[in-house]
Write a structure and sequence with these properties.
With 238 residues, the protein is mainly beta. A hairpin with a 2-residue loop joins β15 and β16. It is 7% helix and 27% strand.
Length: 238
């Protein structure tokens, strides 16, 4: 810990070695900075946000995307975390080995739609994520509630009324994760990034459609459809 001094590392609250043993805290001995820097020590890079467009308007994901916003995920401790220190998202937790046995892989060919009940990421037990792999990338789907250390999310209802979707950056996840804006044409920016109840999303290659069927306290139900014969090559989200 280094007490803050004018001119010492201006613009930096902390610094850490990724997958290393040392973190530097520059005058900000608080949860936001310490959890973020320790996340780097655990092997995580930043949680970004990604803005994409097609020929006419903004879309959740596409071939034309801006450079990712380095700290752009407001709901994750590896993002900017100015309003709260959120759980690591499921794409990040997968890198830590935490997701084993806690998610449903719907990357295999589907003869019929798959229905999944997701429990809140912040709670024990239940399915925490859906991994949907295309030929290029894996979409990670999670559900959050304003409980525990994420209680501050009560001020962000647009993150709770549905599911948040992340992709690795790049496709192998070696540089953190990207939050996608599933309501790209709203006026609220990233504050309502969740795909809301009743809405559907189809990826650009039309290899899957994700629908949020319902939400109750303690869970959300999603349905994934994949056209038979339009499946990614072998492998797994891991």
């Amino acid at each position: 810990y280094v007490p803050w001094t004018a001119g010492l590392c201006p613009g930096w609250a902390g610094l850490a070695f990724v997958s290393g043993r040392i973190s530097f805290i520059f005058g900000y001995m608080d949860t936001r900075v310490t959890v973020h820097e320790l996340g780097h020590n655990l092997g995580l890079w930043h949680s970004h946000s990604l803005r994409c467009t097609d020929a006419t308007e903004q879309v959740p994901y596409g071939q034309t995307c801006d450079p990712f916003d380095e700290y752009g995920d407001p709901f994750d401790a590896m993002g900017h975390g100015f309003f709260g220190v959120g759980h690591f998202n499921v794409a990040q937790k997968r890198l830590l080995g935490w997701m084993a046995g806690r998610y449903v892989d719907v990357s295999a060919p589907l003869r019929s739609p798959v229905r999944v009940n997701l429990s809140p990421l912040e709670t024990d037990g239940g399915v925490k994520a859906v991994a949907i792999r295309t030929s290029a990338i894996t979409f990670w789907v999670e559900y959050r509630e304003a409980v525990g250390v994420d209680s501050w999310l009560s001020n962000w209802p647009g993150a709770l009324n549905g599911v948040l979707v992340h992709i690795p950056q790049p496709s192998d996840g070696s540089n953190g994760s990207n939050l996608l804006d599933m309501t790209p044409n709203s006026i609220w920016g990233w504050s309502d990034a969740a795909l809301p109840v009743g809405a559907s999303y189809t990826d650009p290659s039309r290899s899957f459609t994700l629908t949020v069927r319902s939400r109750t306290q303690g869970g959300v139900t999603v349905v994934v459809r994949r056209p038979v014969g339009n499946q990614p090559a072998g492998g797994s989200p891991e």
